[in-house]
Amino acid sequence: AYERRFPTCPLIPMFVASDTVNEYKSEDEAIHVIERRCKLDIDAPRLLKKIAGVDYVYFVQKNSLNRRERTLHIEAYNETFSNRVIINEHCSYTVHPDNEDWTCFEQSASLDIKSFFGFESTVEKIAMKQYTSNIKKGKEIIEYYLKQLEEEGITFVPRWTPPVACKSESSTCHPRRPVSPAINIPESATKEGLSSKEILNTSSSPSEPTAGTPDDKLDADYIKRYLGDLTPMQESCLIRLRQWLQETHKGKIPKDEHILRFLRARDFNIDKAREILCQSLTWRKQHQVDFILDTWNPPQVLQDYYAGGWHHHDKDGRPLYVLRLGQMDTKGLVRALGEEALLRYVLSINEEGLRRCEENTKVFGRPISSWTCLVDLEGLNMRHLWRPGVKALLRIIEVVEANYPETLGRLLILRAPRVFPVLWTLVSPFIDDNTRKKFLIYAGNDYQGPGGLLDYIDKEIIPDFLGGECMCEVPEGGLVPKSLYRTAEELENEDIKLWTETIYQSASVFKGAPHEVLIQIVDASSVITWDFDVCKGDIVFNIFHSKRAPQPPKKDSLGAHSITSPGGNNVQLIDKVWQLGRDYSMVESPLICKEGESVQGSHVTRWPGFYILQWKFHSMPACATTNLPRVDDVLASLQVSSHKCKVMYYTEVIGSEDFRGSMTSLESSHSGFSQLSAATTSSSQSHSSSMISR
């Protein structure tokens, strides 16, 4: 049934033709290897094909049928652009070991895009779309040809049996000659001195891995050493999520231990884990969290008055963090530093915790993926329930819960006073159920008795302030001097600085007040690239060109051309008296971007001059047939309070001499970040590439 799809298959429209390159049949007809060169008409944008300079893509497919072992192994790889893109696909049909009437089918593929004229992301999306489509149709195609065979009266194929051997050397035997002697022999086999017949007899044995078999299982020693006990289902979830990240995520791929934390946080539900992991990766990228330990130095106030620090490890080898919350002046720290600086400090503590987990994994020879936190509440009073301080605490908990799941192995709360239930009532709703189960709360001196601190921490490292013998170097805290307090305006500006202290710029977009960025181009055919996230509201993205420079924005923050807000700046460059078509022109079709979307794209400039990137407030169109507001309009008005939007953006200009490939941009395309494929929309007038990720 599988062979019937050659030389071409009407059920696979992109499969145009195929030619047999090599074919081999063993003397006993148990082995049949056939290699074909397949011609594919890929469903790709017309301009992309023009850039690449090809109309068709060629793949080489090798099918190895072993009638003795009852297996069919299929390997395919790309011949076109093989120096830029590496695609490998492996499929296998085998007989189920427990039921010979069942056929097992396995399929996997890998995609490695080294370079593709600067459009690697677009090619990746197209490949994923094609592959997903093929997977969905695979079963349908094989069933179509099985039904065709049944209609022809073929419902049974006799099982292969060895041919009768010649009785004597003088007997005349005429074995069938191979159609072609050409066959790919693995280098390892030739080095070991195996004959071609031995290779054929062993290469398809189920007890031996076939050449190119995908690594669909993790090494048992690796799991035991770095990941801990995993069921086959959990191992499979980890592999699938990691492969999905490798195929779709642009940027640093987290380690298996970190991916596993998100899977555990969602009970190994891949879709849910993938959603929160992608959100976290975007957040890490925006705020450069990966570099926080190397690039950010805590203010001296934190070093002196933040009563927390790392202190050895617990009995399970987990890093131990000690926090003397009762001795800490939370109100003074918030008044002296602001909410953002405290959050940044807590993030650096979590990043240090991840690093210490890796170190302890190496030291103790077993996986350690979380840490223990010891919180001493001696001294906690109503001052700690100061509303702005509690608000800052809740936000910190929210950020940590979202981006560092399953990192808290155990939380020991000691010497909880009477006021603690009030604080617990405020913060507990923001803490995940799984995390709450790890809390152990001791009142008074209960921690010194059975089931107390000694069950979790060695006696030798119990801090001195808890009655132990180990000197703890955690700062004692104390009241922050009021001379260090800062005004609300100073704290607000500091918070804005920390929020925008990334490669990204922050901007606010208001109804009637778009945000605009000016880019001067000297050399035509340069490439303007952008990457932005719509943090709040819906916006319209435009690109304009002008031969003359716009007037610089006014300096006053209350002027019509420049607005400063706590969430980011707002700059308007296009003068009110300018007319579209006379003073400036639109070089791209407007692109509507929804809240939560991430947009990447590029534009190849045709002329020198001044280009303006504009983010404009998007108003929902009124319904033409009725005066009643639509549900979407009502929801939009609720979501976008005060007609304000917010974007985080990054732009860069690439010179024509540094740009790889053709000087023609791609058609615009939309894609779902959390989906394997996306619909591609094209416009003959478009000269830009924009990938939108939801």
From TrEMBL:
Q: Which domain of life is it from?
A: Eukaryota
According to the entry, every stretch annotated as the CRAL-TRIO domain falls at 298-474
Q: What InterPro entries is this protein classified in? A: CRAL-TRIO_dom, CRAL-TRIO_dom_sf, CRAL/TRIO_N_dom, CRAL/TRIO_N_dom_sf, GOLD_dom, GOLD_dom_sf, PRELI/MSF1_dom, SEC14/CRAL-TRIO_domain
Compartments, as annotated in UniProt: Cytoplasm; Golgi apparatus
List each copy of the GOLD domain by range: 500-653
Tell me which SMART domains the record gives: CRAL_TRIO_N, SEC14
Where in this protein does the record put region Disordered?
Answer: 171-216
GO cellular component terms, A-Z: cytosol; Golgi apparatus
Q: Does the keyword Protein biosynthesis apply?
A: no
Q: What is a biological process (GO) this protein takes part in?
A: negative regulation of RIG-I signaling pathway
Q: Where is the composition biased (Polar residues)?
A: 198-210
What keywords tag this UniProt record?
Cytoplasm, Golgi apparatus, Immunity, Innate immunity, Phosphoprotein, Signal transduction inhibitor
Q: Where is the PRELI/MSF1 domain?
A: 1-154
Main location as per UniProt: cytoplasm
Role description: May play a role in innate immunity by inhibiting the antiviral RIG-I signaling pathway. In this pathway, functions as a negative regulator of RIGI, the cytoplasmic sensor of viral nucleic acids. Prevents the interaction of RIGI with MAVS/IPS1, an important step in signal propagation. May also regulate the SLC18A3 and SLC5A7 cholinergic transporters.
Quaternary structure, per UniProt, is: Interacts with RIGI (via tandem CARD domain); the interaction is direct. Interacts (via GOLD domain) with SLC18A3; the interaction is direct. Interacts with SLC5A7 (via GOLD domain); the interaction is direct.
Q: What is this protein called?
A: SEC14-like protein 1
Name its species. Answer: Agelaius phoeniceus (Red-winged blackbird)
> Could you tell me the gene encoding this protein?
Sec14l1_1
